[in-house]
Amino acid sequence: MINKIPSTVEQYDDPRLVALYDILNPFAADTQFYIDLAEKLSAHNIIDVGCGTGLLTCELANRGYDVIGVEPAGAMLEVARNRQGGESVRWIQGGASLLTGLDADLVIMAGHVAQVFLDANRWSKNLTFIHDALTPNGYVAFESRNPAARPWDTWTRELSEIEISHPRSGKVAVWHELEDVQNDLASFKSHYFFKDQSKDLVVQSKLRFPVQEEIEQSLFDAGFSIEDVYGNWDGSPVDKDSRELIFIAKRK
Questions:
Q1: 151-207 confidence digits (pLDDT tens)
Q2: Quick count: other Cβ atoms within 10 Å of Cβ 217?
Q3: How far is residue 153 from each of residues 15, 149, 175, measured CA to CA in Å?
Q4: CA distances from residue 10 to 1, 68, 168, 233 in whole angstroms, order as listed
């Protein structure tokens, strides 16, 4: 049986897929990077935009930071609120447009959230909202997959399929299938095959892959100065093999 979920956004309100999210996206090098960054910048008030199930958000709250978690999907926020430390977080359902005047020291967009803005205008507006939510000399930090590394080349069943196990759902096979790449937009399908039920949930998705120079210009235009750009979570510089573009920028 095949069930289709029409877009990336809708999948985050589907409880069957939300239940798998933390298994597929556990605490990893990117989580530690942002935790270390908060300490390095001596941040106090942090906003996590696109916080998902709140893994990073609650890790920061448990370390004593004053944290706001922002997420449009209610099903994801429900998980986030029930994490250890979730009671210490202010949760906002929605996007960065709700953040004006919050005076944060640091805004984080982890989990490649930056790539869901499918055109330059939407991305520019998002940066403007974030700029307005920061204190003078506050920071924004986020990552985007490096298009030079052509990550979509691995989006085949043969190269991307993994199997995970969930206490209620049983064994689930997950893989991605590239459909098309046009300019900086990649369209693909993600399959979640629940083996015990013989049910395949298929999510139609699209992500934007702007080049480094375009992201840098967008930050300048929004009133930021770029402090660092890394190519990996170990802090190494960007090179031709880097799979990430990790930006740290400061409100001017």
A1: 999 999 999 999 999 998 899 999 999 999 999 999 999 999 999 888 999 999 999
A2: 13
A3: 29, 9, 13
A4: 19, 23, 21, 29
> Domain 23-147+210-251: which CATH class?
alpha beta
Separation between Cα atoms, residue 150 and residue 22, nearest integer Å: 25
Tell me the three state secondary structure of residue 245.
strand
Residues β-bridged to residue 247 = 142, 229
pTM for the structure as a whole: 0.94
All structural domains of the chain with their residue ranges = 2-20+149-208, 23-147+210-251
Counting every residue written for the chain, the total comes to: 252
pLDDT in tens, 81-129: 999 999 999 999 999 999 988 899 999 999 999 999 999 999 999 999 9
Distance of alpha carbon 80 from alpha carbon 64, whole angstroms: 17
